[in-house]
Write a sequence for this structure.
């Protein structure tokens, strides 16, 4: 038995006055999600634990069976892995922004205008740097999307226990990075990061591509702001090592891809996927249907629903949910339920009225051969709460799926 | 978003033959509790864990988000805090009884007749004592209700690991207190407690107020029985420190007030509240409605339902539940659901047929802006078990409420 696991990022919500106290999932037209609910078993799930809002990184770790309180040491390494950088267990990784600063290091725009031309080339100028004062440190740097980049420091004696240089607002100076504990490693890493900040500025401010931007009157991307220093837990075994299942991911969000890679999933690129509400879900479904021939477990991530939620736009969220419904419809039509499970859920709730993640549980439905069937026929936060799965925690999901896939191991005899 | 949290102590029950196999909650007329259920989300909750009967102290710790297995080191300090005594983290505190003993220390009545005239004055004679053999120990002593008192020992080298002097029955001698582990501190504390028992007897037996009692033929209150030695966990941070919420409590039960004070709640006195079935619930509701302007979180405790349960009196229990319903009705009528949640539950089940706490889960209902709504319309042990919250644990409740109040912090990013 195989499994296709579809997550609508931040898809779960709360009742909305303008939708007659329905949630976007309740208000949307979702015949295919409802079919999964009707043909299968439903429940609600606390991705982390009741009332605790998860980030996309911690929630995905939990959904893949890794207790984030044990395996999560900052966002940076997942961003870097997702960007395609290599991250070893003693590296320290960051997520970064291109920013625009003046000669006093005052931040004029902490996103350097957001849409940055030639960002890949600018980033390339910062990659594989060596520092004079720290000749044993190697710097890997890569642009991801818009103003976003990832940075990996490789070398001995590094620590993730350092502060951010990103003050998270404009019209303030770049913050000096300070150690967050008393170790030599934290002090050394803070020094490395501060020296890098200076060198990055020197290289970027004088870069010919920024000269062109100045001439055009565009934002120059002449500084790099660092945040989310983290390391990758040594203890993360792959899904294959843990359960003997080969796994692949279809999605574009760097952070989520990073978590997927950390647990050993192979990334299958879909050129038509965009990570926005307009993403081509049919292309993603098609890729998943192809992939399930080669992998035991195919994870399909759709980011649009979360973007719409953070924008406070319930119409767009409904649209995004209906696209996820389309995606699931293609799967149902093309997957043999005797050969593969279909699982639908969200990684966390992002109520559009909050524009932020909340700690509400998410709906969950599982269908396929061997799955017990309850009498729920609608995929929503409330309907699923009355389903046969009851209320489970995120880290319990993968063991349930692995068991339904026939790959669980008996405990005892 | 704010929250008014109402607990009917021991309110949950089991089916009762004389009530046609209904529980007191099912048999009672509870239009307002039902309205909370209908307008909100319901569930059942294991205050400690399934099948484990909580005490009022451990259950309240759990309901406020503090795992009692981590934060509970005996009942004494909560009784003492509730009585208005100061308890520091290295103090050892006890709950105590006034008792009547003869000159051989044989206990004639371990409650000294229960109703004790001038108990406050007798207790005052024991307060701020200094012991000749232990000059570095300070004794704080206070009468609470009827025969009940609280004692706090302050000084270096004390331990809670000592036995009780209260044999829990009459016609036996006061028990010598013994250390319960091999530490010097436990041995020293046992010696302090035994010496105190002698001194208390000397002071009380010769006290002029007891002479008057003797003349009247009333029980003399000439001894103090000690039990429940405990310390206050250093690790208990206030709700404000943990979640940034200011909290107040309305109630009279010393033990519950002690837990509330330990987690940083301010006690708001209601002169009309009695802690019995006859308590004036309207006055408590009115105080809660006033208080919610000044505090984020107002906790309202009603003890009557538990008293009726321990007395095995289901008629009185139904009456007490209907009073709690009145209280909640006043809240519903005067609280703006867009500004404050209303939460109703019990701290544990106390089946009237057992006359003791049981490990059954308790019903729970939460209403207010943003709360997902299920289709439960009756507040009872069984109806709520079919609700959208499913089955949660006591320590999960506060994170859920804090999240609904918009005060939760995202874990990860």
């Amino acid at each position: 038995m195989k499994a296709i696991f579809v997550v609508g990022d931040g898809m779960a919500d709360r009742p909305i006055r303008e939708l007659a106290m329905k949630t976007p999932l309740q208000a949307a037209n979702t015949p295919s999600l409802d079919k999964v609910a009707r043909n299968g078993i439903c429940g609600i799930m606390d991705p982390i634990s009741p009332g605790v809002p998860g980030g996309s990184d911690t929630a995905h770790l939990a959904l893949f069976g890794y207790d984030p309180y044990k395996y999560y040491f900052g966002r940076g390494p997942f961003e870097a892995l997702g960007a395609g950088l290599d991250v070893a267990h003693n590296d320290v990784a960051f997520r970064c922004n291109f920013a625009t600063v003046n000669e006093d290091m005052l931040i004029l725009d902490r996103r350097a205008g957001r849409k940055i031309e030639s960002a890949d080339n600018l980033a390339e100028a910062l990659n594989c740097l060596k520092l004079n004062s720290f000749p044993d440190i190697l710097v890997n740097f890569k642009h991801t999307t818009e103003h976003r980049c990832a940075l990996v420091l490789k070398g001995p004696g590094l620590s993730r226990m350092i502060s951010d240089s990103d003050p998270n607002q404009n019209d303030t100076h770049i913050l000096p990075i300070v150690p967050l504990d008393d170790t030599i490693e934290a002090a050394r890493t803070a020094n490395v990061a501060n020296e890098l900040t200076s060198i990055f500025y020197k290289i970027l401010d004088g870069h010919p591509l920024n000269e062109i931007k100045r001439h055009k009157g565009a934002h120059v991307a002449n500084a790099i702001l660092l945040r989310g220093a983290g390391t990758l837990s040594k203890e993360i075994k792959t899904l294959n090592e843990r359960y003997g299942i080969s796994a692949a991911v279809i999605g574009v969000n760097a952070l989520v891809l990073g978590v997927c890679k950390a647990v050993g999933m192979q990334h299958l690129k879909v050129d038509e996927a965009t990570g926005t509400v307009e993403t081509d879900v049919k292309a993603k479904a098609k890729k998943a249907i192809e992939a399930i021939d080669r992998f035991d477990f195919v994870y399909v991530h759709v980011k649009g629903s979360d973007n719409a939620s953070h924008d406070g736009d319930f119409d767009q969220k409904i649209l995004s949910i209906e696209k996820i419904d389309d995606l699931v419809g293609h799967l149902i039509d093309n997957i043999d339920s005797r050969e593969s499970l279909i699982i639908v859920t969200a990684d966390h709730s992002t109520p559009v009225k909050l524009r932020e993640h909340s700690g509400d549980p998410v709906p969950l439905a599982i269908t396929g051969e061997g799955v017990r069937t309850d009498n729920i026929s609608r995929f929503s936060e409330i309907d699923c709460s009355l389903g046969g799965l009851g209320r489970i925690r995120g880290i319990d999901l993968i063991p349930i799926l692995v068991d339904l896939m026939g790959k669980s191991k008996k405990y005892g005899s």
